[in-house]
């Protein structure tokens, strides 16, 4: 049941009607049970056995959270309890995510990395005494399985979402229209931009040796926007779904290609994961309150872990290493006042790194880079037709202009006519049907 399907529209509208009836002070427990059942049903549409992974993760972190507090009440830190929570949660993630590389017959659960990290934030925040453990396991289970964030994030924090789950949400016309607007914009990015670009990218990367350097370069640029529109489109639809019901889910993207530095890019790209690694890994390793050599190790470790989190292939490790080198290189020898030329350099290098993210075989990825550098001026492949590729370029240009205007705050308000145009664009140019890119992670 994908966000970009009529099945989801029927599911959400039906659930919203029931939600309105139970979103009252006296029926909040019933409302949360309803949302939990709906979330499990939503996840079971992928595979019914996946629900047991959610239940396992919930039980581990709920009872470890109780254990941590009991240890702390005795004057202990609760280190053993939080360590058990991390080991048991990561063990499940490691088994399915990396045993899949060896045993390809294993069914890889969608969203496992996302809800595992979300669950761990609950246990770790209790250990750090940022939140108190919940007495009701239903609230914890709903926090972990909340259907808008379940499959591909954003990776929420317990201190942000659980308090909202324990109170009546404020549903009004503004929240409903804001949520619908976000959902429509996300849907436009997914099926008009990302899925159209995917047709060209998939055709080229399916047989890279059959294409020229200029074609491979165009495919690389297209993929930069494809993965952004695909993933941020999902995030917008998730946030929009929550907003309609009155829940405020954290932002996951903030115009990441409208940046002047690599550091700024990582403050705007996949914000929930970047901030998770910063808060629970980087700071735990000492952050920047250490020697310069240790700080270099901390930064490099976070980027490499980010690569490994995406998959157990050398291409993902190289993707993380490339970003570590770019980030640290900019820190020591980067310009103090980045100009437009450096902005272009940042985008080119990010696009270069995406090649390793997209191509599983690292040697093949290097071969593509070599072809781009040595055979750039050559005939261009026009995909299924010249009209289709030119149309994709035009729609991408419209998207880029709108993103730039948003970046410059030229479009600070939401206009009804703008979203009517987006809906028309979806009807005319949408080519939906593919899964979201980040479902594989």
Describe the overall structure.
- By secondary structure, this protein is an all-alpha fold.
- Helices cover 71% and strands 0% of the residues.
- Helix 3 (50-73) packs parallel to helix 5 (112-127) and helix 4 runs antiparallel to helix 5.
- 39% of the residues are buried.
- Helix coverage percent: over 70%
**Alpha carbon gyration radius:** 22 Å
Structural class: mainly alpha
**Largest sheet, described in full?**
none
Q: What's the number of helices?
A: 18
End-to-end Cα distance, whole Å, is 17 Å
Number of strands: 0
Name the poorly predicted regions: none
The outline comes out as globular
Sequence of secondary-structure elements: HHHHHHHHHHHHHHHHHH
Averaged pLDDT, please?
89
Question: Strand fraction band?
Answer: under 5%
Keywords:
mainly alpha; 18 helices; 71% helix; 0% strand; globular
What's the short story on this structure?
By secondary structure, this protein is an all-alpha fold. It has helices at 6-22, 28-44, 50-73, 79-102, 112-127, 137-145, 147-150, 158-165, 173-206, 213-244, 262-268, 271-282, 292-310, 314-333, 340-358, 362-374, 386-407, 416-429. It starts with 5 loop residues before the first helix and ends in a 12-residue tail after the last helix.
Fold topology:
Blueprint: H1 6-22, H2 28-44, H3 50-73, H4 79-102, H5 112-127, H6 137-145, H7 147-150, H8 158-165, H9 173-206, H10 213-244, H11 262-268, H12 271-282, H13 292-310, H14 314-333, H15 340-358, H16 362-374, H17 386-407, H18 416-429
Helix pairs in contact: 1-2, 2-6, 3-4, 3-5, 3-6, 4-5, 5-6, 6-8, 9-10, 9-17, 9-18, 10-15, 10-16, 12-13, 13-14, 14-15, 15-16
